[in-house]
């Protein structure tokens, strides 16, 4: 939609003539940082080519394609001339919408603009408005996009009554994501209304996501049953669709004489006797204002009623003589325009228009086949096989060393027929496969009980029970599809609909949907998912979803290698929670390994070696033995404090996502819980857990801790952690959007309930409460005020309130935060992401996203200095705290607590016991003196 704000509007402008007005418009764009001064020349040239007046007193001045280099940032400015300006084509203009656009966004801006500007009376309201906000509101009403196209036709359905046809049409709209199941419920209770001529209508606004019209026709039409229309959406948004329906009925043709194309043409408002033609648009930048104007001018030359529509669009045909409507089609290069005309000159008009469009409407065009865009994609090169005994660099994702035969997880090929004769049998097969999948998922959940993967698998179970998916599959089966084809079609449509929203979180949900979908499909095809060997193995996969990690038999799997993925993505965190050495982002070459090939995974150095030679193999065996000894020693001393050789003690705590793991953490020697990721508790529930449920969960942890402290982080959703029942607005970059405390502060009642549950569960036991993603004191104070309110009400004798240092601003501002907080806990995963500007899950870049980067270390140093100056303590709860090379540095930077996955607690304690604070300070100074993370690692390894 338009990116117009009140600041982009200038009311009450005056101009001596149109050039003066244009110069002001160019000046406004330049001042807003959208263009350079050169853009005015491009705008002038554009006016010389043809006027940019749209009609209705509105002009849309913009530059020529050549002047796009003067555009710095796409945007628009609006200048209102209440007294009007006479344009060079003689039109009187009251509103200038000056556009700065690079190539293809241009068309979207124009289309949105024309859809809005086309509203009757709007131009007048714009010219008279005396308030910029009101004017922005007038222009920001999103255009209603209706659905009525080939997808919404269900022709020749095996159904005998209007009610059955109505349900088929409604189910189709649901499958197209135009409506939800409430709509279906509303239609079930409706008796179709006769429209005459054997046509019927059902209509409801409940559950409609967008206005849509579907038509279901019977296999054998009868005079009293030709078809049933199903209309979705509130009445005011359905006006256009009702007009189309009216036009269709007015023609009065029998349905059995019409194919799908003719039906769509009638529904688009084309007369049966219309002359029509289809033409492919060749203009590089689509049907933007200038070629659109040429088309309109050509259409006006003929004595005919000419209409134009897109072959693959929302189906509406528009008048060829309306510039705004033609631009509003938003036609792009390569799309097919359907022209139709009635009247005296119909045939010559269509011939001339088709020729003009093919000729480029005044622009130089090239045929589609000769463009690079349509050139055949070069075949993807086969990845080279790994070379024996040669280390391959990858991203270290979970520490540890392992040697075992490889097992490469390859998705099975699933072959199935597209159609099936007996729908009843298909439905039974589908039900069986869903039940089977449900059983498999539930047993996986039991295996993963208490683990971080369990909540994600619960979401899979819910997806499996999704009524929309089921209904869509039934509908496809009703139309003759096999259970497999129907199911996959439903999954694919739903997944694509989510992906199309270009929202990263929804795209991840789409991956989950496909994961669930494949499981059911495999069950339908009688193909079992790949089975790993009975003996120990190293799992190699393209990528691993949480459900794959949960499926792992940890008694046999020795390590993980993925071709893709990043080190701090949550699937990598799950691998660490399982204590498995893992490397990720190793590239496609690892997928060429044959099953059984011997593989070394070094999760500390971040490398894999295939088929190691005898010498390397022996060396690794020796290291494994030493590590096992170290582990045994660390385990036996796990309940001892982590005190350095020179008597300095650090607390070593555990990170948890599930309170059921608390006894395990205590058993492994944790000095407390240093990070409870409470969002995992929220994710395990289909809706926000209430006070009692939360209190019960937190109480488990306190009871198991026997007086040890618990650091609970308040709900941290957004970014890469979505919550189904808390839908977030679509954001271009969710990691920089509403997440963490920012999001919680938009729903203070949820935060307050969580705080109340924590305080009640804690009683007089030590609770440390911290807020995620705090960027400055304002956010901390807002969140703390909520906690204090609850504390005043129910009391909390041993409560500390802190912030996570995850955003560079909070580290830089630590001296201002320190006097008001009780502690800091450094979340190095996010702190590294935001300091180095590298997405924590980025497959290609994550090797460079190293928390041992000197920039991150300096931020930690600043945090500690500020905290200690005010007598506050500092913990590190990000993954850096588990890194053996980083432990001396963090000790030397004088952090007071490290919090790591439970399994690592004994080893981290053992590592600290071998150090002295003095040497650690030297290590920290060495690290801080370096310029890059690689230099830091090299220097630390060499020292
Ligand atoms: C971090 O960002 O370092 C952290 C501990 O929080 P999370 O990984 O849950 O975002
Ligand atoms: Mg974080």
From TrEMBL:
Similarity annotation: Belongs to the PEP-utilizing enzyme family.
Subcellular location: Cytoplasm
Name this polypeptide is given: phosphoenolpyruvate--protein phosphotransferase
Source organism (scientific name): Marinobacter qingdaonensis
Main location: cytoplasm
Residue stretches of biased makeup (Low complexity): 368-384
Keyword terms: Coiled coil, Cytoplasm, Kinase, Magnesium, Metal-binding, Phosphoprotein, Phosphotransferase system, Sugar transport, Transferase, Transport
Phosphoprotein is among the record's keywords: yes
């Amino acid at each position: 939609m338009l990116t117009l704000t009140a600041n982009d509007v200038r009311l009450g402008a005056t101009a001596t003539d149109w050039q003066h007005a244009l110069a002001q418009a160019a000046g406004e764009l330049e001042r807003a940082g959208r263009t350079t001064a050169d853009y005015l020349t491009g705008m002038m040239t554009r006016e010389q080519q043809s006027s940019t007046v749209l009609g209705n007193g509105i002009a849309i001045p913009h530059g020529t394609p050549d002047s796009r280099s003067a555009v710095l940032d796409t945007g628009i400015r609006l200048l209102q001339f209440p007294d009007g300006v006479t344009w060079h084509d003689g039109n009187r203009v009251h509103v200038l919408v000056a556009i700065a656009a690079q190539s293809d966004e241009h068309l979207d801006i124009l289309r949105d603009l024309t859809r809005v500007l086309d509203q009757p009376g709007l131009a007048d309201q714009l010219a008279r408005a005396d308030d910029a906000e009101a004017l922005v509101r007038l222009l920001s009403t999103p255009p209603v996009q209706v659905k009525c196209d080939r997808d919404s036709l269900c022709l020749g359905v095996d159904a005998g009554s209007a009610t059955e046809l109505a349900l088929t049409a409604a189910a189709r709209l649901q499958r197209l994501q135009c409506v939800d199941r409430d709509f279906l419920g509303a239609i079930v209770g409706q008796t179709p209304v006769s429209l005459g001529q054997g046509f019927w209508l059902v209509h409801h606004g409940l559950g409609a996501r967008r206005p849509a019209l579907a038509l279901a026709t019977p296999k054998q039409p009868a005079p009293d049953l030709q078809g049933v229309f199903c209309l979705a959406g509130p009445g005011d948004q359905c006006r256009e669709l009702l007009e189309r329906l009216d036009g269709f009925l007015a023609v009065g043709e029998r349905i059995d004489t019409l194919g799908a194309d003719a039906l769509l043409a009638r529904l688009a408002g084309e007369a049966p006797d219309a002359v029509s033609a289809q033409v492919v648009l060749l203009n590089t930048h689509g049907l933007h204002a200038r070629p659109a104007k040429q088309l309109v001018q050509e259409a006006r030359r003929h004595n005919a009623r000419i209409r134009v529509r897109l072959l693959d669009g929302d189906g509406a045909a528009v008048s060829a003589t309306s510039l705004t409507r033609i631009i509003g089609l938003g036609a792009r290069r390569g799309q097919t325009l359907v022209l139709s005309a009635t009247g005296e000159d119909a045939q010559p008009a269509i011939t001339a228009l088709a020729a003009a469009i093919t000729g480029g409407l005044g622009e130089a065009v090239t045929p589609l086949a000769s463009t690079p865009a349509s050139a055949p994609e070069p075949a993807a090169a086969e990845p080279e096989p790994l070379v024996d005994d040669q280390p391959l660099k990858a991203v270290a994702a979970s520490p540890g060393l392992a040697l075992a035969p490889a097992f490469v997880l390859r998705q099975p090929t699933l072959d199935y027929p597209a159609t099936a004769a007996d729908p009843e049998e298909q439905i039974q097969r589908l039900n069986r496969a869903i039940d089977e999948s449900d059983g498999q998922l539930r047993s996986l959940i039991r295996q993963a009980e208490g683990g971080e993967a369990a909540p994600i698998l619960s979401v899979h179970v819910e997806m499996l029970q999704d009524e929309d998916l089921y209904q869509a599959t039934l509908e496809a089966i009703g139309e003759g599809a096999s259970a497999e084809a129907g199911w996959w079609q439903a999954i694919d449509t739903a997944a694509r609909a989510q992906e199309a929203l270009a929202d990263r979180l929804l795209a991840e949900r789409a991956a989950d949907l496909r994961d669930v979908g494949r499981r059911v499909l495999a069950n339908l095809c009688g193909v079992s998912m790949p089975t790993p060997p009975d003996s120990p193995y190293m799992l190699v996969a393209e990528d691993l979803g949480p459900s794959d990690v949960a499926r792992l038999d940890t008694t046999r799997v020795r390590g993980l290698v993925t071709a893709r993925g990043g080190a701090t993505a949550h699937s990598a965190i799950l691998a660490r929670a399982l204590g498995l050495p893992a490397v990720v982002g190793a590239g496609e070459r690892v997928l060429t390994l044959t099953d059984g090939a011997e593989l070394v995974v070094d999760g500390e150095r971040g490398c894999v070696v295939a088929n190691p030679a005898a010498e390397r193999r022996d060396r690794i065996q020796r290291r494994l033995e030493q590590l096992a000894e170290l582990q045994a020693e660390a385990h036996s001393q796990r309940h001892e404090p982590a005190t350095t050789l020179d008597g300095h003690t650090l607390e070593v705590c555990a990170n948890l996502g599930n309170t059921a793991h608390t006894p395990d953490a205590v058993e492994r020697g944790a000095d407390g819980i240093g990070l409870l990721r409470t969002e995992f508790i929220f994710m395990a529930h289909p809706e926000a857990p209430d006070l009692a449920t939360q209190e019960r969960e937190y109480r488990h942890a306190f009871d198991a801790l026997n007086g040890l402290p618990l650091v609970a982080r308040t709900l941290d959703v957004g970014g890469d952690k979505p919550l189904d029942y808390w839908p977030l607005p679509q954001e271009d970059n969710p990691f920089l959007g509403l997440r963490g405390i920012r999001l919680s502060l938009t729903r203070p009642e949820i935060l307050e309930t969580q705080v109340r549950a924590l305080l009640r569960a804690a009683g007089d036991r030590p609770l440390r409460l911290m807020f995620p993603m705090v960027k400055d004191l304002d956010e901390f104070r807002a969140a703390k005020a909520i906690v204090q309110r609850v504390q005043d009400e129910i009391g909390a004798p041993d409560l500390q309130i802190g912030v996570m240092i995850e955003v560079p601003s909070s580290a830089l501002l630590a001296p201002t935060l320190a006097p008001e907080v009780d502690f800091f806990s450094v979340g190095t995963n996010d702190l590294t992401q935001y300091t180095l500007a590298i997405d924590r899950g980025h497959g290609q870049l994550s090797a460079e996203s190293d928390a041992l980067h000197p920039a991150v270390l300096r931020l930690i140093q600043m945090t500690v200095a500020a905290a200690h100056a005010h007598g506050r303590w500092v913990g590190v709860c990000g993954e850096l705290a588990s890194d053996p090379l980083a432990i001396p540095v963090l000790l030397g930077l004088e952090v007071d607590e490290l919090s790591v996955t439970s399994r690592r607690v004994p080893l981290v304690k053992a590592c600290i016991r071998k150090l002295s604070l003095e040497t650690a300070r030297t290590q920290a100074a060495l690290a801080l003196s370096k310029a890059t993370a690689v230099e830091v690692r090299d220097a630390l390894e060499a020292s």
